[in-house]
């Protein structure tokens, strides 16, 4: 199965997480915030934690490595990932299912693929983050008709069971 | 949450398969026997049993054998663990997106009024 960048990919509303909002800033400002190490370090993790960007190679297969610290002296692993797709100014995709050295990884707590999409919007930027969890290679190739209705029932019952 | 990491891994890989997800969805409506669950699926009973074992080993379902019938029951607690983990992930991503938004609109990721970040 050859992957094509423009292919619409399977999205599982139960396991994948989507954040979408309009941010009143130009696309380029958001792109820079994600792709410039000293900018990324300023917002990605909450203060007082500190973030250090060790590698940010903006190309498919490029390394994406960050470390975090509570005191600025002892640095702990944070993200060790590779970029899958880079579309300058509008889209970046990275996964920690493969490490920056291209070894298949079993990251903690689970493997995830993060896709950041910047779209045009009259008030600024249509910002979207899609985080896919689980094993992408085992994903269903198409949505199971009726599956989500059934799953909704499970979730409703779960809610009823814990309320 | 780190202590749940292996359990979450096992659940995610169990749920990455459409057959197993359809089993979970069906069990949401109540317990069912292996035979009942396998009937609508076009796979052999031995292959289906592998799916059942995978769901059982990660704790998403329990099975009980009575005579010749094995009944599968959904384990709501495990599903709850998955839901709360996903909720936590959502909160982490919403928070970091809030910081990104503040950073690109005000030049600082810190809230103007510190009490905003609970």
UniProtKB/TrEMBL annotation, chain A:
Residues 25-163 form the Activator of Hsp90 ATPase homologue 1/2-like C-terminal domain. Pfam families: AHSA1. It comes from the Bacteria. Belongs to the AHA1 family. This is SRPBCC domain-containing protein.
UniProtKB/TrEMBL annotation, chain B:
It holds the Pfam family HTH_20. InterPro entries: ArsR-like_HTH, HTH_ArsR_DNA-bd_dom, WH-like_DNA-bd_sf, WH_DNA-bd_sf. Gene3D superfamilies: Winged helix-like DNA-binding domain superfamily/Winged helix DNA-binding domain. CDD domains: HTH_ARSR. Residues 1-94 form the HTH arsR-type domain. It comes from the Bacteria. This is Metalloregulator ArsR/SmtB family transcription factor.
């Amino acid at each position: 199965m050859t992957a094509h960048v423009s292919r619409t990919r399977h999205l599982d509303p139960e396991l994948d997480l989507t954040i979408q909002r309009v941010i009143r800033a130009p696309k380029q400002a958001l792109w820079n915030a994600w792709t410039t190490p000293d900018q990324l370090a300023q917002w990605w993790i909450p203060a007082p934690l500190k973030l250090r960007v060790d590698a940010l190679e903006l190309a498919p297969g490029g390394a994406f490595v960050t470390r975090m610290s509570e005191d600025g002296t002892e640095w702990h692993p944070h993200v060790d990932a590779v970029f899958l797709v880079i579309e300058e100014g509008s889209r970046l995709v990275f996964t920690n299912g493969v490490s920056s050295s291209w070894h298949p990884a079993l990251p903690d707590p689970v493997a995830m693929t993060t896709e950041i999409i910047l779209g045009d919007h009259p008030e600024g930027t249509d910002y979207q983050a899609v985080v896919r969890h689980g094993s992408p290679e085992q994903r269903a190739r198409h949505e199971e008709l009726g599956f989500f209705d059934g799953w909704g029932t499970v979730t409703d019952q779960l809610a009823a069971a814990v309320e | 949450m780190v202590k749940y990491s292996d359990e979450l891994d096992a659940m995610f890989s169990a749920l990455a398969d459409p057959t197993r997800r359809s089993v979970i969805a069906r069990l949401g409506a109540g317990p069912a026997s292996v035979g009942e669950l396998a009937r609508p699926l076009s796979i052999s009973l031995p292959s289906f049993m592998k799916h059942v074992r995978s769901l059982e080993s990660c704790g998403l379902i329990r099975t009980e054998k009575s005579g010749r019938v094995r009944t599968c029951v959904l384990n709501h607690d495990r599903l709850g663990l998955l839901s709360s983990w996903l909720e936590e992930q959502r909160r982490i991503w919403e928070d970091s997106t809030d910081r990104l938004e503040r950073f690109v609109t005000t030049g600082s990721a810190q809230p103007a009024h510190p009490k905003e970040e609970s």
